[in-house]
Amino acid sequence: MAQINSVLDTMSYVLGDKGNHIKNLTTYDKGSAQNDKFFTELVLFDSQTFNKLQPFINGRGIFVAGKMPQHMEILYPKETAYFKVLTSTCIIGVNGFASETMETDEVKAATDQNTAAYVTKLTGNTTSITLTYLCEFTSLVIYNYVTTWMHLVYNPGSMAAAYCHLTGLEYHEGNHTMTGVYVVTNPSYQTVEIGAVFYGMFPTDNLQSTYLNSTFGTHDIPTVELTFKVHTYTTALPNVMEVCKKTLDDYVNRTAIVDYRVKKVPTTGDFLL
Fold first, then answer.
1. pTM, to two decimals
2. What whole-number distance in Å separates Cα of residue 97 and Cα of residue 232?
3. How far is CA 215 from CA 78, 83, 134, 189, 220, in A?
4. What pLDDT is stored for residue 19 in this prediction?
5. Quick one: pLDDT at residue 23?
6. CB atoms within 10 A of CB 197
7. ∠ Cα 158 161 166 (to 5°)
8. CB atoms within 10 A of CB 124
9. Three-point CA angle 131, 208, 134, nearest 5°
10. Domain residue spans in the chain?
11. 18-53: per-residue pLDDT in tens?
């Protein structure tokens, strides 16, 4: 009896007035008729308010590359355009986010009972992320682009930022980093659940060891996990939410979310030699 009343109290709290009429019409000890009424009303409640009880379902997200490093756009425009496409279409995972944590300190009294904790600061800024590409491509497109990017910022032989001499650009983060937008969506790809924008993105590892270290006779197609240093702002900020919404709208308009939007339909000629 106590357990049933606890459930009803919880429903009344969650539903407000809709919940109160269920509790008022229902008692555990009035027989099966009232119990049947309870379950009938419960089903009715579910059908009317599912839109407020839809659980968050993860696993759907998009990453869109924004402004590319200017020194690479000048020196390698075609390669940069290709890398931007890869980074906007071949990402299958984004990881590395930190959770925000409220830190506290204690004012200690003579007894534990009178000791109090006070907020000191909020921590948890995300300073690096890892983008997982579905694979590397022949000629090691990702590796070669990232290696060139890194060597132009810091030449291994001279320690100089070589791109400044080759392009006339000044040395600063805005000239040798990229930006990006990450959006986690609901199943319809119409609603932004959460997201983030990244500034000052720069790769910290070209994964050279991944390609050089090898076991002969082992043949597989590994994913590529590329780590970037970033400055991160999440959709906790309203203007970031607007950027993510616009990015999602653009993505949906450019992508065949439903089959009938596919412009080129395969024909028998595509499969016959």
1. 0.77
2. 9
3. 34, 28, 21, 41, 11
4. 46
5. 47
6. 22
7. 105
8. 11
9. 35
10. 2-53, 61-258
11. 444 444 444 445 555 555 655 555 555 556 666 667
